[in-house]
Design goal:
82% helix, mainly alpha, elongated
Length: 45
């Protein structure tokens, strides 16, 4: 059972890594913008 899942993940890893990077690059500025709009500091002081 585990081997089926491992094979599936390894077959799709080439598409999953770039997709994860794109999601990160979209989510990071969005989170920083929400923090700025709510008055929270960017970095803990």
């Amino acid at each position: 059972m585990i081997h089926k899942h491992l094979e599936y993940y390894l077959q799709h890893i080439k598409q999953d890594i770039p997709a994860g990077i794109v999601v990160f690059l979209v989510a990071l500025p969005l989170c920083l913008g929400i923090a700025l709009a709510s008055g929270a500091p960017f970095f803990p002081v």
